[in-house]
Design brief:
single chain; alpha/beta; QueA-like; Thrombin, subunit H; nine-stranded mixed β-sheet; six-stranded antiparallel beta barrel; 6 helices; globular
């Protein structure tokens, strides 16, 4: 089967790209799609519970975004430098993207926040990324909170007033370079309402890399190489998933990152069990889902791996129809946009 990147294109007016988060979080609109029929209804996220049943399980990604963008200067001559932290490799040791790259040779040192953080380049990788050793007084992540900025996606031009609005209310495990945005709609009150109604929640961790924004460049989708991301599925979550399935409940992934974690574990292990590792799973139409029964997600970029994942779950025709409807109904798109509930 040949899958073309252009198959997943749709026209999106620029004014529908949400530039700021809506207040309150759960006031966003929610398109509800029956994946067996493709039938669409329109609602708001604060009514999510009315679409779920007692005994259902929502699986959420509790990764927390780090303020991974740093602006500083080269020690010695004060030349401007920008770092974007990608992945922790050791104690205060990080793989980064930097620009201008020619200023960052091995041994070069940089200062951020007036010396609150300093860094030395220890390796230049084949793809141009650097590995740098940071130094600071006290806790590295505390220093990063002081001097770093949120690495908002390139399509968001507005400055974020409150850093916490690019975090889910249940974010806990530091390590993402981008937010698992499907969870941004939840409020603490909604989590309590879920509990009262007997709808369970469980957590996985997948640290979202900037590869999530990497466009598919190959015309033939199957030639695209997925980026790798670190995940953890704890025993408590595995037990809850297996118990939910046994009792006839539905396992609903909150976001494509939770979906990729669950499907990776089910694929690698042949079952849902405690697991930790790296995944580069690429889910596109034709994929047979092994774990999830529902998906809560935002509206994704045209020709992206994420719209391909949604198409695999909901069906290609249903997906493209839903996106055309979302444009016609003026839904808000992407990270700070509206939600889609597929059951």
């Amino acid at each position: 089967m040949e899958l073309l990147r252009s198959d997943f294109f749709y026209e999106l007016p620029e004014e529908l790209i949400a530039q700021t988060p809506i207040e309150p979080r759960n006031a966003s609109r929610m398109m509800c799609v029956d994946r067996s029929t493709g039938q669409i209804t329109h609602d708001h996220f604060y009514n999510l519970c009315s679409h779920l049943k007692k005994g259902d399980l929502l699986v959420m990604n509790d990764s927390r975004v780090i303020p991974a963008r740093l602006y500083g200067e080269k020690i010695g001559n004060g030349t401007f430098i920008e770092f974007l932290l990608l992945e922790q490799k050791g104690d205060k040791l990080w793989e980064i993207i930097c620009r201008p790259g020619k200023k960052a040779k091995v041994g070069t040192r940089f200062s951020f926040g007036g010396g609150r953080l300093t860094a030395e380049v220890v390796e230049v990788k084949d793809d141009g990324n650097r590995v740098v050793q940071f130094q600071c007084e006290g806790n590295f992540f505390t220093a990063l909170e002081d001097v770093g900025q949120m690495p908002l996606p390139p399509y968001i031009k507005e400055k974020l007033k409150d850093k916490e609005r690019y975090q889910t209310v249940y974010s806990n495990e530091l390590g993402s370079a981008a937010a698992p945005t499907a969870g941004l709609h939840f409020t603490k009150e909604m989590l309590e309402e879920l509990r009262i109604r007997g709808i369970n929640t469980a957590f996985v961790t997948l640290h979202v890399g900037l590869g999530t924004f990497r466009p598919v460049k190959e015309d033939n989708v199957l030639e695209h190489k997925m980026h790798s991301e670190h995940y953890c599925l704890p025993k408590k979550t595995a037990d809850l998933i297996n118990e939910t399935k046994k009792n006839g409940g539905r396992v609903i992934a909150v976001g494509t990152t939770s979906c990729r974690t669950l499907e990776s574990v089910a694929t690698f292990c042949g079952e849902i069990s405690e697991s930790e590792g790296y995944t580069d799973i690429f889910i596109y139409p034709g994929y047979e889902f092994k774990c999830i029964d529902g998906l809560i997600t935002n509206f994704h970029l045209p020709e992206s791996t994420l719209i391909m994942l949604v198409s695999a779950f909901m069906g290609y025709d249903n997906t493209m129809n839903a996106y055309r409807t979302a444009v016609a109904e003026k839904y808000r798109f992407f990270s700070f946009g509206d939600s889609m509930c597929i059951l």
